[in-house]
Amino acid sequence: MSSHREAPEISQDPVADSADLYAFVSPDVPNTVTLIANYVPLQSPAAGPNFFEFGEDVLYEINIDNDGDGRADVTYQFRFKTELGNNNTFLYNTGPIQSLDSPNWNRKQFYDVTRISRGQSQKLGAHLPSPPCNIGPLSTPNYAKLAQDAVRDLGGGRKVFAGQRSDGFYVDLGAIFDLGRLRPFDGAHNNFGLAKLVNSGGVNATKDLNVHTIALQVPISDLTRGGYNARDVNNPASVIGVWTAAFRQQVKLWDDVKRKHEWSGPWNQVSRLGNPLVNEVLIPMSRKDEWNRSQPSDDKNFAQFVTKPELAGLLPVLYPGAFPNLDALNKSGKSRDDLAAVLLTGLPSGVVNGFQNNTGHVQADMLRLNTAVPPARKPNILGVVGGDLAGFPNGRRVYDDVVTVELRAIAGVTFSLIDKNFKPDAVAGQVTDGLTPANLDIPFMPHFPYLGVPHDGFDTPAK
């Protein structure tokens, strides 16, 4: 979770695994949108001598649909290249790394950024440096400065960063995948005749882990239909759909002369991510790899798993007596059109007062962002559910509590938006895994790239 190891095939290919996606109007530069795509999930900071990096053989993309057909109208592509400085050492660095061009840093990565729109390709940046991993106080004595030096200006109010960050996604993986446990409600869980469970606080499984982040900040007009500078929340041109994807070439061969694998042939998509937790929680195991290979425009083929979510049926079983209204809703056979709106089409006008992020009738898993909604003065981590229209599912900010929001939606709190006769169970509005951003050791940043400085290998306990 959000998309860490979510499907059998991609769990074996972490450098191509789309782990998290964020899209939001930048709070400190509100005429821009920040797009963040994370890869290489669940990194232990102490990872020498082969520290984590992007894949040279992976094509990374951030895609934007601005006309509601579930197809990319604007695409940003990223390709990485690794350069070895010293062929005769096993070390990542041979002394302190105090600058991005330090001769002590032996294994550097660089990348190119290309923007594609209407069939036209524009290279925005070439041979841009990615910072090293955060090794420890001797090897990377001023990591925050190294990382900030790697933030590059692409001109025209555009910025880019690609490198290691602290994983800002917080989730109690250990409890949730132990038969759907939520520690704050353990006492009500069906314990299957085993020892009685006791309520407790959540445990953040990603607390001390890092990811590799691709972050881009661009003017709103770079993304919207016709370059519309969003002012009107109700104008469909204010809404964009965002997803990230990774591709590998079709053929992988072992070159016995070069003593390494070589890739060739057309590019095939191996992972993608729009809304958090969709493939993780809603798509069945037998179709997760298929979902990763498919396009958002084809998500009608998976809509049944959104409108009839397995987890909604499990909650009344796992928590006997706690969800009688949800149980009745499940047994009624009614389609969960509320979840389809949140995840596949966006919310139309009139559902939430003063808000919409609808992209039309095409069912497509994308983060939908209404770029005319200004950043919140007092953000609420529950986003739209908490009365904060600048948060999830209106895009996704780095601190939004998407686990709680989606658990409550599946438990029925959003069904009353489309069926006024339905009354959500009292506990549905309290469901949570018990975590907030306070459960992170490293805080978010108030400026680009927003995710915090990564944990260093020397000071972080091994997991």
UniProtKB/TrEMBL annotation:
InterPro entries: DUF4331. This is DUF4331 domain-containing protein. Pfam families: DUF4331. It comes from the Bacteria. It comes from Kutzneria kofuensis.
